[in-house]
Amino acid sequence: MTLPVSDATPPSATLTITCADQPGIVAAVSQFLRNHGANIIHSDQHSTDPSGGTFFMRMEFYLPGLDHTRDAFTRAFTQVVAEPLSMDWQLNLSSQPKKMVVLVSRYDHCFLDLLWRKRRGELNVEIPLILSNHEDLRRDAEMFGIPFHVIPVSKDNKPEAEAEQLRLMREAGADFAVLARYMQVLSGDFLREFGRPVINIHHSFLPAFVGANPYRAAFNRGVKLIGATSHYVTEELDAGPIIAQDVLHVTHRETPETLMRLGRDVERQVLARAVKAHAEDRVLVHGNKTVVF
Amino acid sequence: MTLPVSDATPPSATLTITCADQPGIVAAVSQFLRNHGANIIHSDQHSTDPSGGTFFMRMEFYLPGLDHTRDAFTRAFTQVVAEPLSMDWQLNLSSQPKKMVVLVSRYDHCFLDLLWRKRRGELNVEIPLILSNHEDLRRDAEMFGIPFHVIPVSKDNKPEAEAEQLRLMREAGADFAVLARYMQVLSGDFLREFGRPVINIHHSFLPAFVGANPYRAAFNRGVKLIGATSHYVTEELDAGPIIAQDVLHVTHRETPETLMRLGRDVERQVLARAVKAHAEDRVLVHGNKTVVF
Amino acid sequence: MTLPVSDATPPSATLTITCADQPGIVAAVSQFLRNHGANIIHSDQHSTDPSGGTFFMRMEFYLPGLDHTRDAFTRAFTQVVAEPLSMDWQLNLSSQPKKMVVLVSRYDHCFLDLLWRKRRGELNVEIPLILSNHEDLRRDAEMFGIPFHVIPVSKDNKPEAEAEQLRLMREAGADFAVLARYMQVLSGDFLREFGRPVINIHHSFLPAFVGANPYRAAFNRGVKLIGATSHYVTEELDAGPIIAQDVLHVTHRETPETLMRLGRDVERQVLARAVKAHAEDRVLVHGNKTVVF
Amino acid sequence: MTLPVSDATPPSATLTITCADQPGIVAAVSQFLRNHGANIIHSDQHSTDPSGGTFFMRMEFYLPGLDHTRDAFTRAFTQVVAEPLSMDWQLNLSSQPKKMVVLVSRYDHCFLDLLWRKRRGELNVEIPLILSNHEDLRRDAEMFGIPFHVIPVSKDNKPEAEAEQLRLMREAGADFAVLARYMQVLSGDFLREFGRPVINIHHSFLPAFVGANPYRAAFNRGVKLIGATSHYVTEELDAGPIIAQDVLHVTHRETPETLMRLGRDVERQVLARAVKAHAEDRVLVHGNKTVVF
C-alpha cells in the first residue's frame, strides 16, 4: 500500500558528539557547520556537569551534496573540531538508513508493529533479514517481502546457532539488531562478536521484575501498574542502558493472562519508540545510562 | 500463527439491562440467576439518580447448557423479571460472537490493528466482510483471509453505493459496523436502514476539532495535546455518543504531518478499546452518552 | 474558607464483604437490603475464581434512619446473611467518618495536601491528631486547627517513643494512621499493638527501589520514569499490599534533586487517592494484595 | 519551615532570542558567549521552517559577575549579534526573579498550590501582592506572609476596579500576573494598559468547552476525559496562546460536581507547570502559539 501522505524526514545529516565538557564546544561545531554551508535544523545538548562532566550533542542539518563530499567533510571536521576537543563523534546521513536485523520467536505483536511502521515510512531503516528460532511468523515476514531465516536454538546447539546467526547478520550488513520478544538469552560472546547495538524489549518496568515471567510476578505482587522497558542488551540480563519505558494502570480484575494481553500494547509502543530514536541517532550511551534527544 | 497462550474469555453469557431506577432490581435479577443455576462472574451497575433516574446493569455469568436452553431462559426472564420491572434488556452468549463489518479507505493503521487483534483472540467477533472505496488494502485483507469488497463512492453515485454496501452488509449478517478511518460520511438514510450500531474513530479529542483535518486544526491552534475519540455514528457529524477517548502530549516541534503520524498510535488504541467494549456488551447507550462497564 | 460548591457524599452506608465464592451471595445481600428498605447506589464485586475462590463485595446504599437502627440491622444481617455464608463483613456510615492520625517528619507536600483535601471536603475523615518527630510543620498544622504533637525518635528512645505515640493515637480514637513521608520505620510491635491499618507513601514504583533514597537509585539506574506507591504497612519494609501507584516520565536532564521535586507531585496524588479510597471503604485486603473498588 | 534539601536553580542567566531563520545564528551567539567567558548549561532551539521561517532559541549559561557587567554585556551583544541578525531578545538573571501578582477569587486549589511551590523553592519568583474580589482567602495569603488586597468587582464598578488593580500591580512592580481561578474577565483595556503577560488556567482541554461551566458542558457531552489548559490571556476569551495542557480519564460515574473535584488536581498541576516555564523564560510566544523549551 502507498500512503497518500508521507511523513518521511527530508534528507538530512546528523552529527552526534560526546566529549569532556569545556567552553567553546557549541561555538566550534556551529562555526564549522556554518563555514561548510550547512543549515542547522535541530540541535540538542546535555552536560552531566558543566565543570568536569561529559558533554553530549546532536545536531541535525541540511548540507546539499554531502553524500558526495562526506569524506572531505569528515577529514576537515576531524582536524578542525573533533581532535582538538577530543570528541567521540559520528556522522549519519538520512539517505543511508541503518540496516536493522530483527530477531523474533513466536509472539507477533512487537514484530508486526515494527514491520508496519517500516512500511508506513515511520522508521527510517532497512530490514535485510529476520531471524527466528521458530517457523510461526514466516508467513507474516514474507507478506512484507523480508527474508525470514529459522535457526532453532537449544541448550545443546547454542554456540553453533549463535555462530550461524552471527554469520547471517554480518552477511546482511546489520548495523544493529532488535529483539522483538526473542525468547533466547544472547551470550556475552555473541554480543562481543557482533559488536553493534542490540535493542531488547522487556515486559516490565525495570528494574522491577527482572527475568522471566514478569506478568506473573506483577500479578503476585499485586501492583497497580504494568509496563515495558526497551534497553540496549548487555551481558547482564535486563540491566543494560534504558532507552524508553512506559506503563499502564491495571486493577485487581486482571489475571496474569489479561496482564499479558494489555502489556502487548505497551511493549510494542515502547519498542517502536526506542527503535525510532536509535534509527534517528537520538540515543547516546553513557555508562549504563542513555541520553535520548 | 497459533499463540501458545490464549486469552480468550471462557464461554459465558452477558445480560445487559436498562430500566427506571427502583428498589429491588439487583435482588430480582440475582435471585433469578441463582434459581437457574447461574454463577455470576462480574456485575456492574450504574444509576443516573437513585430517585427517578435510569438504572443500567451488566451481569456476566456462567450457565452450562445455555446455548440449548436460551429460549426457555428468555421466556422465563421476560415473565419473571423484565416485564414486571419494565426493562430493556439483552442476552448475549460469548459462544456466539457478533459479526462485525469493517469499512476502510486507504489508511491502514486502525484497520490492521483490528484484524491483528481479532487474529490474536483479543476481540471476540467474526469479520465476515471488509468494505472499502479503494483497492489499496486488498492484499492486507486477503492476508487475513477476509473477503474484501471495493465499492467506489463519489458525489454522483453515493445513493447507489450505499445501497450496495447495505446489501452486502445484510448478506454478511452484520451485527455492527466499524469505520476504521473510512473517509466518507454515511448518510442518515444509510444509518436508519442499517439500524445497527456503527462505531467511528475520529482523530481528535472531541468536541474539539470536529470535521475534517483535525490535525491541521490542532496545529493551527497550537494545542499541547492531540487525541482520538471513538463514538457511535449518528446523523450529526462527530456528535454521537462517545465510547472511548485518549490523548498524547505534543510540543511545538510537531508539524501537521508528524501530528498525524503520532496520532495513528492513539487512534488505533482508542478504536480497539471501543470495539472490544462493544463486542463484550460493555457499552450501554443513554441519550447522547454511554455507560461503559 | 468555605467553598461555594460542596462535593461531600450525601449520607450513605457501605457494606463490605469478603467470603468464599459460592452461588447466591449477591441475591442474599440484595434481597436483605431490599427487605430493609435500602436503596443500593453502587455495587461492586470481584471473585478471584468463581470455583473455590474468594469473593469481595462493596455495596453502598441509602437507608434512612440507619444511624438509629444500626444495632438491629447488624444483628439481622449477621443472622440472615453473614453467618450462613461465613462472611467477613463491615458496615460503615458516611455520617461517622473515620478518625485518621497523620504521622509526618519534615517534608510538607503530602501532609499539606491531605489537610487541604480534608478542608475542602474531598476526604470524609476526622483528623484528631498529628504526630511528628520534628517541630518543622507545627505552624502549618495549627493553621488548620489540628493538635500537633512532637515526639523525637532516636535509636535510643524508640520503644518509649512508640509507646507514647501509641498512647496518643488510642486516646485520639484513631481508626487508621497515615505516614505522610514519616521518616521512621515503625516496629512490628507497634503495628501489632495498634492493630489498625497504617497507610504509607513510598517514593518509587514498587517493587523497584525498595528502601531508602529511591530517587538516587532511580537516577543511578537511568530509568525513564519515576513513581510513587501507597501501600498498607506490614512488618516487612515496603512490601505491604499496594493500594495505588502512579508514575511520570523523566529524561536524562533530571538530577536526583529534580527527580525528588517532580516526584513530590506524584507522591501527594497517589497518597491522596489511597487515603480517599480507604476512607470510603473501597479497599479490601486479600493476603498481600488489595481489591480497590 | 526550612527544607533539608533545596532544589533551587544555581544563579544563571538566560538569553531568549526570536529572529528570522538564517545560517549562522547559533555560531554567532555561542561564539559571543564563549568570548565573554560564559559556560553554556542548556541550549534549545526551534525553527518553524529552515527557509523563511522564524527561529527561536533559549540559552542558559553561567557567567560570573554578570550582575555587575550586565549593561556592558547588553551593549556588546546588541552591537555584535542582535542588531546584525535583527533579533528580538531578552536577558534574564536567575538572581533577579520575576515579580508575579496573583489574582484569585474563592477557589483555593490553584492559589495554594502556587504559594506552596513558591515556599518550597520550586518557583523562582517573588509574589509582592495578591489581588482578590473576595475576602475568603485572606487568612491563607497571610499565612504565607503575602499582602492580600480585596477589590470587589461588579458590572457597575468594573472600570474603577480595574484601574485600582492596575495601580496596585504597577506599584508592586509586577512583571506578570497569574489568574489562579480568578472569576472575572479582564477587559481589553486592562490587558493593554498592563502590557505584560497574564497567565490563566481554564478548566477544560481547550479549544473544547470554551467559556463558563466547562465541567457541566463536559458532563452533558459525555466525554471520557476532562482537562485543563493554561494560556496567556488575550482579549478574545479562552483563545490566547496555550502554554500547557493535561487531561485525566473519567467514566460515566462522575457528576458535574465530582468532575469539578477531580479537575482541581489537573488545574493546579497545569497552572504550576505553565507558571514555572514562564518564570524560567522557557516560553516564547509566536503569533497565537508558544514554543516551550
Keywords:
homotetramer; 293 residues; alpha/beta; seven-stranded mixed β-sheet; four-stranded antiparallel β-sheet; disordered N terminus
Quick recap:
Chain A has eight helices and 13 strands. The first copy, chain A, has 293 residues and is an alpha/beta fold.
Q: How would you characterize this protein structure?
A:
Four copies of one chain form a homotetramer. Chain A has 293 residues and is α/β, with parallel strands linked by helices. Chain A contains eight helices and 13 strands. Chain A has helices at 25-35, 66-82, 109-120, 138-143, 158-171, 188-194, 214-221, 256-279; strands at residues 13-20, 39-47, 54-62, 88-93, 98-104, 125-132, 148-150, 176-179, 198-202, 225-232, 242-249, 283-286, 289-292. Chain A has a seven-stranded mixed β-sheet with strand order 7-6-5-8-9-10-11, sandwiched between helices. In chain A, strands 2-3-1-4 form a four-stranded antiparallel β-sheet, with helices on one face. The first copy, chain A, has a two-stranded antiparallel sheet with strand order 12-13. In chain A, helix 3 (109-120) packs parallel to helix 8 and helix 7 (214-221) packs across helix 8. The longest helix of chain A has 24 residues, at 256-279. Chain A is globular, with a radius of gyration of 21 Å. Chain A starts with 12 loop residues before the first strand and ends with a strand. Residues 1-9 of chain A have low confidence and may be disordered. Chains in contact: A-B, A-C, A-D, B-C, B-D, C-D. Chains B and D meet through strand 11 and strand 13 of B and strand 11 and strand 13 of D.
